[in-house]
């Protein structure tokens, strides 16, 4: 990784920065859905932004790894207590509306197995500040791709936070943290002149960062680094000189395929800076010498991460037509498990969007309740149903929290009710508001030869991919006319649609509505599959512009 200096691409990513208010701590009230007990706590974040932790009135400390945090929500998007008694307890003696003071931190090891930490601040401004700060720390790309040394520092920070009321570090925490080989942990502790019994504890002052490094070196010896160190000129001397270190970086580490003008080899002055940064012995560092300990620290440092920071940052050209890109997409987005009998969840739409997905799938079906609300599910299976409206609200909430680039809503529309399709279109318009792209951009009309707009042009926009109602001739019929859609008429010869029998509901006296029903209700050739989609009504068609589902013909360019 060394040698690829950030000269070509100016890094836009910002390092972790924890505000003073988070480090100092703030009073909150913690509550849980399963109980009517509320717990006053003081919530803090460690200076490096690895954890946020809280202490209750009994001085007991709990912590949450910020790398597990998926989202932080406040106000109307946070969870609210359902129990009236609990609401009353949380609202007593506080300033401001309860809803605006609520925070929900969503965390978990993956997108499906998530939990919630529910908090109430004493002031609305505090709730907003903590929500924004926690979300910023949790989604920091540099923090998510830390160096080996940073991860070891994180483990040390965890041990220092999980102390007894007397301020001592329980050895059982060390054994739990390094659980692969208990005997090696015991030997490494003894090498540091520390007690090794699992039931013992040690004072914090006896477990300094230097002692921790000695412990790690004994726990995980690195003989291969000693061999490299010797290979580059330190066979007779316990250090590398500036020139020897420069040879290692430029000849051993640097990719020879790199352009030497864009990615020049390091010079002596730059290598000296690295030696002063990583060499723990200041007298050696001043003389331009690096010990094996400093060499190991350098190899574990940020200059030698698995992924270069420039690759984490946006470094691609995003001004090309939309069709020139692969799009991070999700299939059966709503499912938390198998597609035959798995549960569907609105939360999945939040989670995939927060993880960077830019195209989600909505399998829409006609709701069969009295309210006639459309639902999302996997058709002809035992998967559960979720509300279409709630999904649209979830998408609106999280669409652009982690990325400004456009969202594509891939509709698989099986709703054969014009009334419910009209509801779907109305929900999209009202909930998405100006974010919904209703008309083609002025610079990119839907005309032959005009390219699609780029992701940059479509930033913060939501696009609907759905079938579009075909233009029909008005000869001999009283059907409604659609405006000419020159390049947007949908036809898909891969699906066969036949008019279905009239429904058992009340007949509509208006011929227009009868015609809409005939157009909308289509049946599948094989009723055991979900292969056939309903024809789009005019309301849904009006949401479609740049993207439609079409049958694949070939890779040949016409």
UniProtKB/TrEMBL annotation:
Biased composition of type Basic and acidic residues is found at 472-483
- InterPro entries, alphabetically? EF-hand-dom_pair, PI-PLC_fam, PLC-beta1_EF, PLC-beta_PH, PLC-like_Pdiesterase_TIM-brl, PLCB1-4-like_EFh, PLipase_C_PInositol-sp_X_dom
**Catalytic activities:** a 1,2-diacyl-sn-glycero-3-phospho-(1D-myo-inositol-4,5-bisphosphate) + H2O = 1D-myo-inositol 1,4,5-trisphosphate + a 1,2-diacyl-sn-glycerol + H(+)
What is the protein name for this chain? Phosphoinositide phospholipase C
| PANTHER family given in the database record | 1-PHOSPHATIDYLINOSITOL 4,5-BISPHOSPHATE PHOSPHODIESTERASE BETA-1, PHOSPHOINOSITIDE-SPECIFIC PHOSPHOLIPASE C FAMILY PROTEIN
Q: Name the gene that codes for it.
A: Plcb1
User: How would you classify this enzyme at the top EC level?
Assistant: hydrolase
Q: Where is the composition biased (Low complexity)?
A: 491-501
GO-annotated biological processes: intracellular signal transduction; lipid catabolic process
- Cross-referenced Pfam families, in alphabetical order? PH_14, PI-PLC-X, PLCB1-4-like_EFh
Q: Which CDD domains match?
A: EFh_PI-PLCbeta1, PH_PLC_beta, PI-PLCc_beta
Q: Which residues cross the membrane?
A: none
UniProt region (Disordered), positions on chain: 469-537
Sorted alphabetically, the keyword list is: Hydrolase, Lipid degradation, Lipid metabolism, Transducer
Q: Residues in domain Phosphatidylinositol-specific phospholipase C X?
A: 316-467
Question: What EC designation does it have?
Answer: 3.1.4.11
Compositional bias ranges of the Acidic residues kind: 507-518
Species of origin: Mus musculus (Mouse)
**Superkingdom in the source lineage:** Eukaryota
Which GO-annotated molecular functions does the record name?
phosphatidylinositol-4,5-bisphosphate phospholipase C activity
């Amino acid at each position: 990784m060394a040698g690829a200096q950030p000269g070509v691409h100016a890094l836009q990513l910002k390092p972790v920065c924890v505000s003073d208010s988070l480090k100092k701590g703030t009073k909150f009230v913690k509550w849980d859905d399963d109980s009517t007990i509320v717990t006053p706590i003081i919530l803090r974040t460690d200076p490096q932004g690895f954890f946020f932790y809280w202490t209750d009135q009994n001085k007991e400390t709990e912590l949450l790894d910020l790398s597990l945090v998926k989202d932080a929500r406040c106000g109307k998007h946070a969870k609210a207590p359902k129990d009236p008694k609990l609401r009353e307890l949380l609202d007593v003696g506080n300033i401001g509306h309860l809803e605006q003071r609520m925070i929900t931190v969503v965390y978990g090891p993956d997108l499906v197995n998530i939990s919630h930490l529910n908090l109430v601040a004493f002031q609305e401004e505090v709730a907003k500040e903590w929500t924004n700060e926690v979300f910023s720390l949790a989604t920091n790309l540099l923090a998510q791709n830390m160096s080996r040394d940073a991860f070891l520092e994180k483990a040390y920070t965890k041990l220092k936070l999980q102390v007894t009321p007397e301020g001592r570090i329980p050895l059982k925490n060390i054994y739990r943290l390094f659980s692969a080989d208990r005997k090696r942990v015991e030997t490494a502790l003894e090498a540091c002149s520390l007690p090794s019994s699992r039931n013992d504890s040690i004072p914090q002052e006896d477990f300094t960062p230097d002692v921790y490094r000695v412990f790690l070196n004994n726990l995980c010896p690195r003989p291969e680094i000693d061999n490299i160190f010797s290979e580059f000129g330190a066979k007779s001397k316990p250090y590398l000189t500036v020139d020897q270190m420069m040879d290692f970086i430029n000849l051993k580490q640097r990719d020879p395929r790199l352009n030497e003008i864009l990615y020049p080899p390091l010079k002596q002055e730059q290598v000296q800076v690295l030696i002063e940064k990583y060499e723990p012995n200041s007298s050696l560092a001043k003389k331009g010498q690096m010990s094996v300990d400093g060499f190991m620290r350098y190899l574990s440092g940020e200059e030698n991460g698995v992924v270069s920071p420039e690759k984490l940052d946006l470094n691609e050209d995003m001004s090309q037509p939309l069709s020139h890109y692969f799009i991070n997409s999700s299939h059966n987005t709503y499912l938390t498990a198998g597609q035959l009998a798995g549960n569907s969840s609105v939360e999945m739409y939040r989670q995939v969007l927060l993880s960077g997905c830019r195209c989600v799938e909505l399998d829409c079906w006609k709701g069969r309740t009295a309210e006639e609300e459309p639902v999302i599910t996997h058709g002809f299976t035992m998967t559960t149903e979720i509300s279409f409206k709630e999904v649209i609200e979830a998408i609106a909430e999280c669409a652009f929290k982690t990325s400004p680039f456009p969202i594509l809503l891939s509709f698989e529309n099986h709703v054969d009710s014009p009334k419910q399709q009209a509801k779907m279109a109305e929900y999209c318009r009202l909930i998405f508001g100006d974010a919904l792209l209703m008309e083609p951009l002025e610079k990119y009309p839907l005309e032959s030869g005009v390219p699609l707009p780029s992701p940059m042009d479509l930033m913060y926009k939501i696009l609907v991919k759905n079938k579009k109602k075909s233009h029909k001739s008005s000869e001999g019929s009283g059907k409604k006319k659609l405006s000419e859609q020159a390049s947007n008429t949908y036809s898909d010869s891969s699906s066969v649609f036949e008019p279905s029998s009239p429904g058992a509901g009340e007949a509509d006296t208006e011929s227009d509505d009868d015609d809409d029903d005939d157009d909308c209700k289509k049946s599948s050739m094989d009723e055991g599959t979900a292969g056939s989609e309903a024809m789009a009504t005019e309301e849904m068609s009006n949401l479609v512009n740049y993207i439609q589902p079409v049958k694949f013909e070939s890779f040949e360019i016409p």
